[in-house]
Predict the structure.
Amino acid sequence: MSKALGAEADALLLELAAITSRPGMIARFYLTPEHRRAMDLVGAWMRADGLEVSEDAVASVRGIWRCGKPDAKRLVLGSHIDTVVNAGRFDGPLGVVAPLLALREARRAGLRINHDIEIIAFGDEEGSRFPATFAGSLALTGQFNPASLDGLDEDGISLREALIAFGKSPDDIAKAAIARETFAGYLEVHIEQGPVLEAEGLSLGVVEAIVGQTRGVLTVTGVAGHAGTVPMAYRHDAFQAMAEMAFALERRARSGRDGLVATIGKVSIGPGLVNVIPDRAVFSIDVRSSVDATRVEAVSMFLEEAHAIAARRGCTLEYVESQVAKRVACDPVFRAGLAEAIALGGQRVRELPSGAGHDAQVMAALGPSAMLFVRCKAGVSHNPAEFASHEDMGDAIAALAAALPRIGNVRNDTD
Amino acid sequence: MSKALGAEADALLLELAAITSRPGMIARFYLTPEHRRAMDLVGAWMRADGLEVSEDAVASVRGIWRCGKPDAKRLVLGSHIDTVVNAGRFDGPLGVVAPLLALREARRAGLRINHDIEIIAFGDEEGSRFPATFAGSLALTGQFNPASLDGLDEDGISLREALIAFGKSPDDIAKAAIARETFAGYLEVHIEQGPVLEAEGLSLGVVEAIVGQTRGVLTVTGVAGHAGTVPMAYRHDAFQAMAEMAFALERRARSGRDGLVATIGKVSIGPGLVNVIPDRAVFSIDVRSSVDATRVEAVSMFLEEAHAIAARRGCTLEYVESQVAKRVACDPVFRAGLAEAIALGGQRVRELPSGAGHDAQVMAALGPSAMLFVRCKAGVSHNPAEFASHEDMGDAIAALAAALPRIGNVRNDTD
């Protein structure tokens, strides 16, 4: 049963995956002809299920099911349908397809809740086209920053121009917002993009929080020299200083608590010649934890250590912080509802943080927000090898269907 | 006195430095119009001192002073007049100018030796233009490889074509060779390109050997992953593996004997995105020591350690050795002659290895070869900041003048 639901979901995912701007791979960017076709496809699915379909001014497709109660609040379920270059077919679209099928299942089983349900397909989560991202969820929560309309894509087209060319009116963006008093909450199904559920043999997990993040760039300056003529004791090798810092950062993250992770993903050294001692090393850091204090302390202690390493080696160190995002907690009542639904399916409930950012973190500004993670193969995402099985997707749809009445009723009762 | 000699040398170096293909910097490449002008200038200096000047088929300028004895062997003194891009004025040219002035000084003092003296200005030591290098000293020692004539510069011009355009006949290269039985030895004055003499307060040093060298490239392959979603314990981070290897290599070199140095000068990582765990790290190693066994053992033990690091981290490691050059010892009799001359100037004699390659290592294939190092500021070379003082260059010229009769006589006596 569950497996059949997953197969049904996958058929829809494959239909969406066929819509791409680059032959031989999945690539679907915000406000492009492919986005248009994907929106039309999702809209058609929604209409076929009897939802009231509309599009807002930032090109989110929205389908509403009415519970029939007066003054019903709105429970939003969704994710995004834009992708990175050479993407998989699950990251994003699964969070649109799963609620569609779950709502269908739940209605078939006689769903009675106190909220309207809105299924939404955001168009701008990956940030593949414009400098700013999350246009859909920012508009939906009234947080859209008009300054981002001036951001340009690589062809020099602004978001404003692209919206207008897409038939949307930037002046109407404010109208896309859901009023706080009518918002019941947001629920997003997404592949885990990590290896935890697979390692623990679980198909589903409840996200307890979307982790906080610090990004920055360190520049080590040393002294260049001839690789043959400068004895080790006389060197001020910027790369070796960086290597020691990298090692220190990794050690700190490994021994850290609260899901602390640290990554050096971007590195360059100068002058970059085989026989010249490097005088310059530049590297990025990306540090995350589900507890903000843990992250902030880790970064600060690492920087202290890095400065000491630089000083001991006669190098200098400069650090520029480029981005800081605080942890966003998922709603405890929603989490409990998801946990109950998972337990109902006979599985152990695993709570885990989301190390990646999602629309759910934007939605949390308006009210309850939560996520259901689905096991993916080897933790791989943003890659054609991205994979979630029919069984696991079926489990997710079944759990979501089971969670709807729990979340939907509880909230109105406690309002 | 010594300082005046150095000032005289510097005047000549400045004349040469003015010959450049790039305004605002020194850049003088093999077989270019600037090389032609530099050869003419050096030839004119030689002629003014009464030397017999000629050019050979690979465009070395050669000036001979005859000692007047029948069956005299030939003692060769020289260095190169080509440069890197944005060079200093000392690296190479000092080794042409110093013997000119030293010979003048020695003759003024009534030089009597059993060897003819040939001063030579090689045109191809830096390898700035063609893939192969050392054309001058390879031809002089009969080791020139005709295959290198097919090597192309960045404009697609072969060495053969460039020689012909320069008015030289590639067929005559074999005629440039000095017969082994008439070769008395080679002596090269060069800036140290390292910090040792400066650190020890000495203007001169005797090179005991040109160090052996191993170069290779290591490729670490790990597993890419999302910087936020893969816990530290699940990572196979190729860059972190490389950082640990770098640290291990440095530790090994630092604790090594025999002037062991190790450098990682070239690094690249993939995919190279801030928020993606690197799956690929490629880096060069350059390992040198004045004792070959020390170098070979260091490389082999490092590779063992690197493989263990890769294995422990679930990464794979590939190593490709690109270049191995054995140590070339300097001639003990020549070294003793230089040491005596330095001691005569009242200085402590410091023997040190040359970590850089020089024509002297090529010349050693034919007979005795030796080098005199001159202190340079902060060990800097291949850079406009390259600097040797008038005092130090004067010391070098005086020492060389004093060494000539010592080396020149001893050799014939012991033949």
